[in-house]
Design goal:
62% of the residues lie in helices and 9% in strands. By secondary structure, it is α/β, with parallel strands linked by helices. The chain has two domains: 118 residues, Rossmann fold, CATH 3.40.50.2300; 148 residues, no CATH class. A five-stranded parallel sheet has the order 2-1-3-4-5, with helices on both faces. Helix 3 links the parallel strand 3 and strand 4. Helix 6 crosses helix 7, helix 7 crosses helix 9 and helix 7 crosses helix 12. The relative contact order is 0.09. About 3% of the residues have low confidence. InterPro entries: CheY-like_superfamily (IPR011006), Sig_transdc_resp-reg_receiver (IPR001789), ST_Response_Regulator (IPR052048), YcbB (IPR013972). One of its GO terms (molecular function) is protein-glutamine glutaminase activity. Pfam families: Response_reg, YcbB. This is Protein-glutamate methylesterase/protein-glutamine glutaminase.
């Protein structure tokens, strides 16, 4: 079960977040505090998986507290909740390691959605740790099997990038990981095959030839939707902090920069239900090349 600690000097906010976690069955709140040194002691002793923390607090602000917790070895997830709209402060929060920034007043639907994403990330992280431990155990007993670990290396390399883009929990991420594994297994040249052929290869891992057309279409939709979410996440970071390391690294690498700018403009003007073009072929091509580099 996922454990949480809520750090906020406003008692009403703490109660509201705790109620959302309990009502939506998202885990268990094992700490609720106004902040300061007391909060640091509670967190270090109870070691919750996730900390929901306010930015502005009397004794220590949220950013200072995150820095101090990390110096003491805490490595859980941070979600910042605040009414502050200052882009520099929000950017600083991302730099020190928060996963999400939720603006007050608290919206229960938004909090639930964010916590579900965090829970999926934690579940995937735990699975990776378990797989690594199993492989380490096998390799210690049978060193000759070491050369067979390359497949996991591909998975890890792709997962690392997708996690950075905030889409590891999306359904299409599984399709993308399988696509990269197949491309590397088949030793494709640095140029990808046509997308239709790639989707067919992935579909063959799930269904027989009878249902392959339907499955291929579903994979195409999942992959496009996942890449669209990645674009939205990168654009959101760029709106908050144009110099954020993830924005600088990924905005023009995986996407057409004009598409990123268009998405940022749409988000800045609060345009809803707008469709933004994504260059799926470029995204997958770059991901393939990045994966090849990471597994060398």
């Amino acid at each position: 079960m996922i454990s949480y600690c809520i750090v906020d000097d406003n008692a009403a906010s703490r109660r509201m977040i705790e109620n959302i976690i309990e009502d939506c069955a998202l885990g268990k709140v094992i700490g609720s505090t106004i902040g300061g040194r007391e909060a640091i002691d509670i967190i270090l002793s109870s070691k919750p998986n996730v900390i929901l923390i306010d930015l502005l607090m009397p004794e220590l602000d949220g950013i200072e507290m995150i820095k101090e917790l990390k110096t003491h070895g805490y490595n859980g997830k941070f979600i910042m909740i605040s009414q502050i709209n200052n882009k520099e402060m929000v950017g600083e929060a991302y730099k020190v390691g928060i996963e999400f920034f939720i603006h007050k007043p608290i919206n229960s639907i938004e909090v639930e959605a964010v916590l579900k994403k965090i829970n999926k990330q934690l579940s995937l992280d735990q699975s990776i740790v378990a797989i690594k431990a199993s492989l380490a155990s096998i390799e210690s007993m049978q060193p000759a099997l070491n050369h067979n670990s390359s497949k996991l290396s591909v998975m890890e390399a792709v997962q690392h990038i997708l996690k950075d883009l905030g889409v590891l929990a999306e359904k299409g991420s599984k399709d993308i990981i399988i696509a990269m594994e197949l491309l590397i297994q088949k030793d494709y040249e640095r140029e990808l095959p046509p997308l239709n052929e790639l989707y067919k290869l992935v579909a063959q891992r799930f269904v027989g030839e009878k249902n392959i057309i339907k499955e291929k279409k579903a994979i195409e939709q999942r992959v496009r939707r996942t890449i669209g979410v990645a674009l939205k996440n990168i654009a959101s970071i760029g709106l908050t902090d144009y110099t954020h390391p993830k924005f600088e690294q990924y905005a023009s690498l995986f996407f057409e920069f004009q598409d990123v700018r268009n998405k940022m403009k749409a988000m800045e003007s609060n345009q809803k239900n707008t469709t933004t073009k994504v260059n799926v072929k470029k995204f997958l091509q770059v991901l393939y090349l990045e994966t090849l580099e990471k597994i060398k």
